[in-house]
Amino acid sequence: MKQIILNPGIFLTVAASAVVYFLLAINLSKSRRVRAFLHISFTAITLIAIPGTDIFPINRLHPKWLIFPSLNTMILLAIYASVAIIVNSRFKHLLGEFLSLLSKDIFLGFLMVFLLFSGSWSAVPEISFRYSVGLVFASALAAHIGRTYSWKQLSVFLRFGNAFVAFFGLLFSIFIPSIGVNEKGWKGLLIHPNILAAFLALTIAIWFLDAIQNPRDRKLSIPIILGLFFVLIKTNSTGGLLVTAILLSLVSVMSFFKKFFKSVPFRPAFAGFVVFIVASLIISLLAFENIETVFAAFGKDLTFTGRADFWAQIIGYVQEKPLLGYGHRGFWLEPGGPASFVRTNSGFRPVEAHNGFLELTLDLGITGLILFLLSFGRSTYLAFRFALQSSSLDGLIPLLIMIFLMSSNTVESRLLTVDYIWFYYILSAAKLNTNSLHTS
């Protein structure tokens, strides 16, 4: 009996049923406070789950489960539907909020439409369509969260939610290494040390921002930052350290020279910031290209080696379908397709391009890449303007997310995926397009 009860499928079914009945009971109470609490709880759990936190039952609440039909999908849909019904005053505008974002950011709007139709030229149309629909749903949810909460509130969600994931993962890495550690280093509750390292880079930057803004809270923020740095080092990810350095540099420059930037005409100030972005991208690529020479003395386990081998091969396949690409996920998931011939000199066979911009070009061609870059450029422009106009340093968070997306996607594929980086991007874009500085 105990084994039956603890079976994940049965447990989830029973738990979901209990949750649904509990939520319906709450709905009958018509309590605004209870509804607000439920929405906050749902948001917190979603933001904890979205990085791919691999601990039951949080790992069963990730939107990725909506891509393929399963028992977990049905349960997840029931939970989403129940929450939406109960807090309908907040969720009833979800679709409208997302469409509003797509109408304001027309490049993102065209990209989403292009994504949904990419299955028509994919070798695996059904799979492409499912992945596309899952991504659109996750994007709509991100847009809703972005428009619902202020940046101050979102900062709290991100700081404490991400710290929870990091430190809970630390416990697993120390006490249950079979789960929290792989051959490269610590991975905590995430899928790989490199993924954890990138996640920690953004988390450290947001906590660093809080330490600057709230000196009285440094007794909490500084120990947390040091703890996060400890976990980051244990991931053995040089890329994570590099992204952390870029983000902390951005926070330092924008925090301490904000008055100077305000005194300069906006266009020259933004042009200077664009130079910073380009320089960061070039430094990232050059650093990874020469990473073995620079860090060999430290005995680092570096995973960049070999990427250049298959990047050249992938670019060759991009040239075969330059305008439209292979359809969303079509290149990698086609049985016996061209991806089966992509290998490094050592024989390693990748399952992704390990570069978000190259991955996007594989999926949607040059057309999709241009649409995304135009959307990204527009959002970065709005984020920079918002950072200068906001009275709070929390206004720097969307700018941090833009730089984080760019730098982390130089060596990992995290664009157009049901992943926390894309989720944060849509969340930021939705917030920036509300044009309401008072919510900073």
From TrEMBL:
**Predominant cellular place of this UniProt entry's protein:** membrane
Residues that span the membrane, as ranges: 6-24, 36-53, 65-87, 99-121, 127-145, 157-179, 191-212, 224-257, 269-288, 357-376
Checking InterPro entries in the record gives: O-antigen_ligase-rel_domated, WaaL-like
Its GO CC terms are: membrane
Membrane topology per the record? Multi-pass membrane protein
Any Pfam family: Wzy_C
The molecular function GO annotations come to: ligase activity
Report the superkingdom from the record: Bacteria
Q: Which UniProt keywords apply?
A: Ligase, Membrane, Transmembrane, Transmembrane helix
Per UniProt, residues of the O-antigen ligase-related domain are 225-373
Where, per UniProt, does this protein localize?
A: Membrane
Against PANTHER family, the record matches this protein to: LIPOPOLYSACCHARIDE BIOSYNTHESIS PROTEIN PA4999-RELATED, TEICHURONIC ACID BIOSYNTHESIS PROTEIN TUAE
What is this protein called in UniProt? O-antigen ligase family protein
Q: From which source organism is this entry?
A: Drouetiella hepatica Uher 2000/2452
Taxonomic lineage from the root? Bacteria, Bacillati, Cyanobacteriota, Cyanophyceae, Oculatellales
